[in-house]
Amino acid sequence: QSKGRARMDGRTDIQFADVAGLETIIKDLQDIVKFLQDPKKYEKLGAKPPKGVLLEGPPGTGKTLVAKAIAGEAGVPFYQMSGSEFVEAIVGVGAARVRDLFKRARAQDEACIIFVDEIDALGTKRAEAGIQTNEEREQTLNQLLTEMDGFTPEQGVVFVGATNRADLLDPALCRPGRFDRKLRVLKPDTEARLKILKVHAERRRMSDDIDLEQLARDLPGLSGAELENVLNESALEAVRKDSDVITPKHVYNAVERVLQGVRRPAQPDQ
Ligand code: ATP
């Protein structure tokens, strides 16, 4: 799904307030925001700066959103690459892309976030990869490791990785100074689903009689991305029906459509 997603470099205005139901994770990331805002302060005080974070969790739970929000809160640029871009690429292309990304980040000469989505695609333990050798994957991984080790703390570069399967990652990626802090991003429970729905409802014209609490209870197992999709489909339904406001009926129809698309039984809350 994220394979074709456009990469985004540069500034983002996404804030922690845009991230719903992940309060513990946001709390754990405050020191990284502080570090990005003033990396030299850590050096002056002799404090060991944060270097990398690994966000582990199911698809659509807000890992990319969190990574962008760190950059947005700190007011620093955000550089992104996706591990899956390298899987089928010609040998050497992946490593060159990594070099290019880090070159762009370095050229700015300021604190930044470097985000690697689907990091398991290039950092899987060899035995688990199911392929005898994958030279491209290995070259890319080695290039990434070399580049990551090439920053000094006062440059204020923080790496954020995202994966659905942290257990498959090459241990080299998780060594100190790399993605050494692991945070689990879970699927939202009822309360978190309500918060996510509220964040996304605020941006849409919803009629007052839509019961978001009931909706949150009715949609167990859905990720943040799927919940957003429900509201987006509701808005599209309203457009199709020439309505100037989203009504409970539009939401109801959207839920039907999204649940059909999800095509799996509802999972219990985690
Ligand atoms: P993947 O593993 O597929 O890359 P992800 O965990 O990175 O997924 P995101 O890309 O961050 O998920 O989520 C997609 C969209 O879903 C977000 O841009 C946001 O609109 C919505 N979303 C997901 N989780 C949340 C959340 N906790 N709060 C608010 N919105 C959310």
Automatic annotation (TrEMBL):
Superkingdom of this protein's organism: Eukaryota
Signal peptide residue numbers: none
Domain annotation AAA+ ATPase: ranges: 49-189
Family the UniProt entry places it in: In the C-terminal section; belongs to the peptidase M41 family. In the N-terminal section; belongs to the AAA ATPase family.
Name assigned to this protein: AAA+ ATPase domain-containing protein
Native organism: Ostreobium quekettii
